[in-house]
Amino acid sequence: MQILKIVTVLVALLPTLMLTNVSMAAQPDNLEPLEQVQPPPKVVDGEALDDPAIEPQITIRKKGADTIEEYRIGGEMYMMKVTPAHGVPYYLHKEDSSGNWINDGPNKPLSVPKWILFRF
Q1: Which residues pair with 66 in a beta bridge?
Q2: I need a surface site. Which of 27, 28, 49, 120 has the fewest CB within 10 A?
Q3: How open is the CA angle 108-112-118, to the nearest 5 degrees?
Q4: Residue 108 lies in a domain
């Protein structure tokens, strides 16, 4: 019974002993460090995020007492932040490609699914 325990422990330790022998192998004297490699740029939809054309362009304008910040990427407006003179700022962003805007303000509207089931 005791021999079985000893054999089990040796079998369990065998992979560790093998890795120790491999890592202790002699290394050549003429090793040189590799050059530092830059990480690849982050890519979204095939375009690099480091591209300055991807960064949003922000236009701030006044409409009465309200301040409106328009966010554009590639010339297309995708979001607006409206800061009223009195009250909480809220955001409007595009709901879909048809150009409808939804309000992300304190009182969010009901979002109804618009699935296309059939097209003739």
Answers
A1: 63
A2: 120
A3: 160
A4: no
